[in-house]
Every structure is written in structure tokens, then in C-alpha cells.
């Protein structure tokens, strides 16, 4: 069934649970979409990102050092705490293990060379949304930094971590 998150074609309480993973940033109105999920489901779990200045935009090396365009993709979006309040959700950080294989934006935080691979980038919406020129610039800069050792020097604090807190937040209501 095709529908928008903001106007779900289901009666109140139609489902026991609803889940969304890393999608509210694609919705026209994330608050309305979350309220719709809450309306049609008794339980809601939404994995989203803390897009604040203190959040992953500045903590995650890929958005901080190579993709400043990410800031424009989330500009004007409601902060994660506002999303949580909209549906009465609790929120807590989720650590991303270094060997996570799910393929979302932060997956390869300790394996930066993965972002040089076309198939990895095609699986992550950020890469398609920033445009080919920004993508090429970021990939070239990352490749050069990996080859020169600059990435390793700049991110030496990550090498021994088993998991990292990169702003991923589940909203549970």
C-alpha cells in the first residue's frame, strides 16, 4: 500500500506495533508522521538521528570532515527531543558496534574505506541526496586521507573502540 507517513490510511489502533528505521528525515512533516504512527499503533519504535549541532553532524567524522552538505539536508528539521515529545516517547542512545553490517550512514565509522565503494554509497540515502559533485569531492578527499594516514591520525581515538555513540536514537512509545 502506498501512503505518506503523515496520512496513514488505517483506523486508530489498527496495529499492535509500528516501527520505522532511519526514515523520519525523509518525511515532509516528521512530527505529523510520528503522530500518525502513534494513532494507528499501540506501540511505536522509531530509530532516528540526533541532528543537532552536538549530534552526529559534528561527532561523526564523515559528516564533520567530508560531507558538510549533510547540514543542509537536516536544516529546519525538528530536533530529536521534539520528535520524542510529540508521541510521548522515551529516548536513549544506541551504540553502533564497529563491525555493524546494516549499511546505514554511520555503519562504517571504524571502517572508512568502505565509503570508497560504490555499492556501499548507493545503499545510504545521504550519498544520493548530496549530489554527484559533492560525492566525488568527499570520496576523493577520504581516499587521499586514507592513503596519507591523515584519516587515521585525525580519528585515532576510534581505533580501539568496540562501539561508538554517533547520535542514533530510538524513540519508544
Q: How would you describe the shape? A: elongated
Using only CA atoms, what is the Rg?
17 Å
**Which sequence of SSEs, written as H and E, runs from N to C?**
EHEHHHHEEHHHHEE
Number of domains: 1
Question: Treating each run of at least 4 consecutive H or I residues as one helix, how many helices?
Answer: 9
Largest sheet: 4 strands, mixed
What structural category do the secondary elements indicate? alpha+beta
Element layout with pairings:
Elements: E1 15-21, H1 30-40, E2 41-49, H2 56-59, H3 61-66, H4 69-74, H5 80-87, E3 90-91, E4 95-97, H6 118-122, H7 125-130, H8 132-148, H9 150-154, E5 163-165, E6 168-172
Parallel strand pairs: 1-2
Antiparallel strand pairs: 2-6, 3-6, 4-5
Attribute tags:
single chain, 173 residues, alpha+beta, Rossmann fold, 4-stranded mixed β-sheet, two-stranded antiparallel sheet, 9 helices, 39% helix
Q: Can I get a quick summary?
A:
This protein has 173 residues and is of the alpha+beta class. Helices cover 39% and strands 17% of the residues.
Characterise the protein shown here.
The chain has 173 residues and is α+β, with helices and mostly antiparallel strands. The chain has one domain (15-172): Rossmann fold, CATH 3.40.50. The protein has helices spanning 30-40, 56-59, 61-66, 69-74, 80-87, 118-122, 125-130, 132-148, 150-154; strands at 15-21, 41-49, 90-91, 95-97, 163-165, 168-172. The strands form 2 sheets. The protein has a 4-stranded mixed sheet. The chain is elongated, with a radius of gyration of 17 Å. The two termini are 24 Å apart.
